[in-house]
Amino acid sequence: MRRLLSFHPPSASPALAVAALSAVLGAAACGPGRVVVLEPPVNAQEVVSRLEARERLAVPLRVVFDWEMSEQGVRVDGRGSARMEPPFKARLDLFLGNNEPAGSASAIDDELRIPTELPPQVLPPANLLWSALGVFKPGLGTALLGAERVDGGVHLSYGLPGGETAVYRLVDGRIVRVEVMREGSVVQRLTLQRDDLQVPVEATYRDLVEVRELKLVRESVAQTEPFPPDIWTP
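The chain above was modelled as a monomer; its predicted structure follows.
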């Protein structure tokens, strides 16, 4: 009786098997059939709701900070304080290095109240000032344009009443930068350094058109009792 002979190649070693599988996967990744995993689109309204809940002023705060302003080669610095009260009230008082008052201002909702002794261009507009203090308030008359994932964060875009666009960069659900765009170019930029407290460690506002910079460096922040109502009109 004739015996049928069959040939079984020796089993490949585990190392060779892994190498072969890696080669196949590598070839597939480079080929036209590459599989790309797409993340779901960002729900802009959900991002806004979470941001409003996280960066809202819940209790009265007193903040002490160092400040520095530079404009066209001229530099001025000193110390300052901010008194903040829910929902959207803030007063800033600036002092020079010799404790001489440099000026005061307040923000009530979307209105900046700046006395005549303080040049109005020293402070950023209300929406950026609120972000510098750790409070999210894009302002009345703005329109939510959308949100997208960019470089490990989220960009949240608003149309401003004057036709400009404000782009908020969020990392871990918190604002770290705001850029105001006009005709595709950045005209104002606010950069924040954050820690676990609501008020940023450092806020740097730059007017790229007027070449002006204002930096606030937080020294302390403390919860306090409500403030007298007359302080909001400096």
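Residues 14-30 form the longest helix (17 residues).
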